[in-house]
Design brief:
alpha+beta, 3-stranded mixed beta sheet, elongated
């Protein structure tokens, strides 16, 4: 998986417009940049995925930590939620 495939941008979800060749090339150049997680500081080259928002980025690992915290805060994660957490953390290691 290339580094550009690891970054998911919420900006593109807001606008669905046809892109010409010049716009596509510009986006590919932007995707080659190193993007850092606003929470842990790791670059997109060291994480599975990176989500970019307006002025903030979060890596997949920080996202799962946040999800795990929210689930475990209730002290009783559902079986489905626990399976998702177990699968994610087993693949990261």
């Amino acid at each position: 998986m290339s580094d550009s495939e690891k970054i998911v941008s919420l900006k593109s979800a807001r606008k669905k417009v046809k892109e010409n060749k010049a716009v596509r090339q510009e986006r590919e150049n932007e995707a080659d940049e190193i993007v850092y997680c606003s929470f842990c500081g790791r670059p997109n080259t060291q994480v599975a995925k990176m989500v970019q928002g307006p002025g903030v980025n979060i890596c997949s690992e920080c996202t799962m930590i946040a999800v795990q915290y929210l689930i475990l805060e209730d002290k009783l994660p559902s079986n489905e939620a626990q399976k998702i957490l177990d699968i994610f953390w087993s693949k990261i290691k």
